[in-house]
Amino acid sequence: SGNVRLARSAGRGGDLSQEQLRPYLDVIVRNSQRMANLVDDLLTLSRLEDETQAPREEEIDVRDLIYDVSAEGRRLSAGRHSITCEVVPAFLKGSRDELRSAFSNLVSNAVRYTPEGGRILLHWEMRDGKGVFSVEDSGIGIPEEHIPRLTERFYRVDRGRSRESGGTGLGLAIVKHVLERHQAVLQIESELGQGSTFSA
Questions:
Q1: Could you say which of 53, 67, 121, 128 would form a disulfide bridge with 136 (CB–CB 3.0 to 4.6 Å)?
Q2: What is the pLDDT of residues 115-140, one digit of tens each?
Q3: How far is residue 119's CA from residue 111's CA, in Å, rounded to a whole number?
């Protein structure tokens, strides 16, 4: 409440109004949220890496899980993208929380790296008796030489763009560990400027 007194700087000083303080407060809030997200992701990754027991065996309704993740993606997109689902009815055994975290990371990446007006497709199909989840986007794509390193902690293709998007650099590392715990492997197909498909 009231004005906040800041130390005098060259050419400016004294009290700033709430309106003048707003840009500084916005930066503080954004950075605080980024730090909170980073801590959350670090704790999640540490727990996954230290976990020796197999994931809890729950029966998961795949359609419900993917629709839940797509709704989260739409909230993040705020209407800037077309997000659709193609899901055949199926059930899956595993940890719902872990798989939701992995699927959600893939969707949020698609939203962050797909320009406004682009499309994102969440897809589930059966191949050779096994379920395959994929997230396909019409985004900026990934140079081929970067693809093998994408699941490394803090690996960035474009550091400036990653910071602007709010990512922590740990999302795909989390995805990798969750999938390994569920006997699955992340596959990445991408063409620069044409979009990407992440599947497992």
A1: 121
A2: 999 999 999 999 888 899 999 999 99
A3: 9
